[in-house]
Amino acid sequence: MKQHNIKHAIKTVTLAVLIAQLLLLLLPWQAVADIYMYRDKDGVMHFTNVPNSARYKVYIKEGSRKKIKRFKGYGRYDSIISVASRRYGVESNLIKAIIKAESDFNPRAVSKKGAKGLMQIMPENYRDLGIINPFDPRQNIMGGTKYFRRMYNKYKKTSLALAAYNAGPTAVDKHKGVPPYKETKAYIKKVMKYYRQYS
């Protein structure tokens, strides 16, 4: 009888653990912590909300609770994003956040200005970025990540790299920082919001 009770208790605990894990996966709310970042000797950016080294510095202060959305397209291009992340040293969640902000994961997206594809590449940049078909997810993600990395190498700050990605490097150079454009400021905030939600 005692052995039966022990087995039953073990089964009950195991089931409770499984249910708890399932609830954690499905729970739509999470506490959003501060975001920390450091850049290693190879120039690769590392982000975390749980710093384990003094190399990490606070990048974004956040104390509120925000609802996590399961975005359309979430995970669809992860294999390509992973390759682009390793090749160009840009964190995968940041690439994904840029894609979300630029096209909402629509590979056929076309802007009013003529930017195309997942990362909204302008036609004049196709050749330089090795893009033949801007609607091809792999070409677009690889090209867009390459361009973002180039902007980061130039400006050394994620906010400025995003500003240059959105408004162009000429605007960043002209204003010696983030251009005073509502669209560009909103774009930077949007990308970083998605980044926090994906992290």
CATH topology of the largest domain: Lysozyme
Named CATH architecture of the largest domain? Orthogonal Bundle
The structural domain count equals 2
Order of helices and strands: HEEEEEHHHHHH
Helical coverage, percent range: 40-55%
What's the N-to-C terminus distance? 48 Å
Q: What is the strand tally? A: 5
Structural class: mainly alpha
> Which percent range describes the beta-strand content?
5-15%
**What low-confidence regions span 5 or more consecutive residues with pLDDT below 50?**
1-32, 63-71
Please tell me how large the radius of gyration is.
21 Å
Verbal overview:
Mean pLDDT is 80; it is low at 1-32 and 63-71. 51% of the residues lie in helices and 10% in strands. It has 2 domains: 2-28; 73-198, Lysozyme (Orthogonal Bundle). With 199 residues, it is mainly alpha-helical. A hairpin with a 5-residue loop joins β2 and β3. The protein has a 3-stranded antiparallel β-sheet, with no helix packed on it. The chain has helices spanning 2-26, 78-88, 92-103, 137-155, 158-167, 169-175, 182-198; strands at residues 29-31, 35-39, 45-48, 57-60, 65-67.
